[in-house]
Amino acid sequence: MSQFLPSAISLSSARHVTRSLNGMVNSKVPWTLASEDFTLERVAALKGDATVAVIIPAKNEAATIGSVLESVLVHDQLIDELIVVSDHSDDDTAIVADHHGARVVRLERSTGKGAAMSAGVASSTSAILAFLDADVLNTTPDYVARLIQPLLERPATQLVKGFYERPLHNMPTGGGRVNELTARPILSLLFPGLGEIRQPLAGETAVRRSALESITLEPDYSVEIALLIDVAQRFGVHALAQVDLGIRRHRNRPLEDLRPMAVEVLRAALERYKVDVPNEASELLDARVGTEDDDDAVTRRARDWT
To answer: Which residue in 212, 257, 25 sits closest to 117, CA to CA?
Structure first.
């Protein structure tokens, strides 16, 4: 894992270092953009001929997909393709998405979040791909612009993650439990530099299409952490960026629902560290998530991956 060199740089020092684009080339920490680093006018000016696709994988999200799309379309001048991948939804997700003008990709069987993202990539041609979650209750019009800004600012940037505060029930913070208790700790231990990514499991992600040419997206919930590690291994930690998206609200899940998600995250990280994960781990996950032919399992997967 020579790509991941230990770094003694603190997060506050990293923020100072990353203010200069010229200092990023050999940085061992991702480029962090604070809220005040963003202006819509600059992003619009930088876009030029670059093409941008917004891809939203969705599983039974008829209640929220409409508001997500309405927010995205506020700055439609930045978007060349708007795609919703309905992962075998049995509600009106596809109908609502179509009504809002999105191109809808309908999958005939439940495939998992990563596979739905792959279907969206295959259905697009744009050079920059911005992914959003369909279940967010407060998506803002600036999400896409903020995500693509680092890719437009610096050609060396390959992958951008959003970060935000995550409320939990009636508390202002505490959400993102798999992120804080599973993803960030294992990244800090095994992949120095990646521990500085505040929301490695964020569904709000932007990536260059060219970066995906040598990377296969994991089919399930582990897609986010796997993509992060794969891009860092291929291009270096300095090719990563993260942007402040403010506060993100979505459904908080019961603790017991988070275990299979944590297993998928750990398995993806350990496999990329060349650890042979025992078969029992896969059997544990299969026992909780089930198979695609199990209707109850499909229901659980719909609840888990979004």
So the answer is: 212
Residues of the chain with confidence (pLDDT) below 50: 1-2, 5-24, 171-174, 288-306
Beta bridge pairs of residue 55: 83, 131
Nearest-angstrom CA–CA distance, 2 and 7: 13
Q: For residue 5, what are its two tokens?
A: 């060199």
Return the structure tokens found at 2: 């020579």
Question: How many domains, the chain?
Answer: 1
- Per-residue pLDDT of 9-24, as tens digits, reads 334 433 433 444 444 4
Domain assignment present for 4: no
Rounded-to-10 torsion of CA 255, 68, 179, 151: 170
> Of 202, 210, 205, which is closest to residue 155 (Cα–Cα)?
210
| Residue pair 69/100 in contact by the 8 Å Cβ criterion | yes
| C-beta of residue 168 within 8 angstroms of C-beta of residue 247 | no
DSSP 8-state class, residue 10: -
Q: What is the CATH number of the domain that holds 52?
A: 3.90.550.10
**287 belongs to a structural domain:** no
**Which residue segment(s) compose the domain that 180 sits in?**
11-254
For the whole model, what pTM was predicted? 0.83
Residue 195 burial (CB count, 10 A): 20
DSSP state of 221: T
Residue 278 class from Cβ within 10 Å (0-12 exposed, 13-18 middle, 19+ buried)?
Answer: exposed
Which residue type occupies 180?
E
284 within a domain of the structure (yes/no): no
Whether 288 maps to a domain, the answer reads no
